[in-house]
Amino acid sequence: PYIPGFLAFREVHVLLELVEKLRNNKPEFLPQVLLVDGNGVLHPRGFGLASHLGVLTDIPTIGVAKNFLQINDGPELTMAKVKTQCHKLLQKGGDKLPLIGDSGTLWGMAVRTLDTTTNPIFISTGHRVSHETAVAIALHCSLYRIPEPIRQADLRTRSLIRRRQE
């Protein structure tokens, strides 16, 4: 079952197996960076699915979350405060809100990907990628709210599940 904050323990082994299969059978197709549908350092323990996968594969990873997972680093990083700040400050596509705690840690960025979207995505470094690079790559890959590699993975897996249920 899905338990918030523990996604990596449920999914990292499957993703690791797929990356290793690609590395062994088709190394020419091994990506230079992985966009992961989950958090990197923007995580209650500072180490989400993107971080786990990146460390285990030694491939640069970027965490891209559709929802904010609350961080215990001061009153500014609550779900309510972040939602209010995003609504107020993210006015157009490409706008970013640094998510900085009382400790001074930059946990990630809330990003409005397009002018036509209102809900942000939450981007954080997973492994061997700066926050600035993570945001630039995610924005470059966004034709819709969600970066295209993650969006396509979602669409294709949902289609596969529907076909198997028929």
TrEMBL record:
Q: Gene Ontology cellular component?
A: cytoplasm; nucleolus
Spell out the molecular function terms from Gene Ontology: RNA endonuclease activity producing 5'-phosphomonoesters, hydrolytic mechanism; single-stranded RNA binding
One Pfam family name from the record? Endonuclease_5
Superkingdom to which the source organism belongs: Eukaryota
The main place the protein resides is cytoplasm
Compartments in which it is found: Cytoplasm
Q: What Gene3D superfamilies does the database record attribute to this sequence?
A: archaeoglobus fulgidus dsm 4304 superfamily
Instruction: Name the chain's protein.
Output: Endonuclease V
The record, for InterPro entries, names: Endonuclease-V (IPR007581)
PANTHER family xrefs: ENDONUCLEASE V
